[in-house]
Amino acid sequence: MNVHIFDSKEQASKAGAILFAAQLMDDPESVLGFATGSTPLGLYAELVRLNQEGIISFQEATTFNLDEYVGLEREHKESYHYFMHENLFSFLDIDEERVHVPDGMAVDPESEAVWYEDMIDEAGGIDIQLLGIGINGHIGFNEPSNVFSQATHAVELTESTIEANARFFNDKSEVPRQALTMGIGTIMGAMKIVLVAFGANKAEAVKAMIDGPVDPQCPASILQLHDDVTVLLDQEAASLLLE
Ligand code: F6R
Fold first, then answer.
1. So what's the architecture of 2-234 in CATH?
2. Where are the domains of the chain?
3. 65, 136, 142, 165: the active-site residue
4. What pLDDT score was predicted for residue 243?
C-alpha cells in the first residue's frame, strides 16, 4: 500500500483527483469506479474543475458506482444515483449511457447484482476504483463478517452503518435496511485502487486496514493484498498509524 498523509483533506482530495485525471489522460476510454459519501466530495469538485477547464474529458469514459440502497428511487435525494448526479455527473461531459449505478428498485436485487457484475466484466473490468472507508472498516457496503464477499450482491446493513448514515435522513427509521454492493472480489479486481479517509473518527479503521491482520472483520484490510493501492489521508485519519 502506498500511504500518503496530507496536512489537509483539500490537499488529499486534489492528489486523488490527479490520479483519476492521469488515468483518463493515459486512456480516455478508462473504466472508473466511484464511491459516494462525504469523503469524495472534494475530489469530485476537483474532477469537475479539471473537466470544465478542458484539462480532462469523460466523453469516452465508463463509470461504475460501488453501491446503492435497495428500495430508493433514483430520484430520491438520498439515493446514490441522485448523489452522483448532484455532485459529479451533471457537471461533466460524460455520456449518461456509460454511467452505471446499481438499480436499487430492481424487482430482484440478486439478479440485478449478477447483471451488474456482468456489465463490469463486459466493460473489461475497472481501471481505477475510488473507495472511502466506514468507521467499522467497511468498503462499499461490505460489512465486517467472517468471510470476504466475492461478487456484487445484496446485503443487510449493520446497525453501525445504519446509525452512521442516519444523519442523511429525517429519521433513522428511514434508512434503508438493504443495499446492493460490489463485492470484495469485484473491488480487488480493479487494476488500481485509491482509498481516501479523513477525520479522527476514521483513525481506528485506517489503522486496522494498514497495520492490522488481513481479516474479514476489517473488510478494508484485504487491500494489503492488492498490488496497486494508494491511500490518501489527512493527519487525523492517520493519527493512530505506526511510525
Ligand atoms: C459509499 C461507500 C461507503 C463509504 C463509507 C465512508 O459508496 O461505499 O463505503 O465510502 O461509508 O463514507 P463517508 O465518506 O461518508 O465517511
1. 3-Layer(aba) Sandwich (3.40)
2. 2-234
3. 136
4. 66
pTM of the model: 0.97
196, HSE (Cβ side, Cα atoms, 13 Å):
26
Cα–ligand 1 centroid distance for 26 (angstroms):
27
66 C-alpha to ligand 1 centroid (Å): 10
Summarised one tens digit per residue, pLDDT across range 143-187 is: 999 999 999 999 999 888 899 889 889 999 999 999 999 999 999
d(CA 141, CA 153): 10
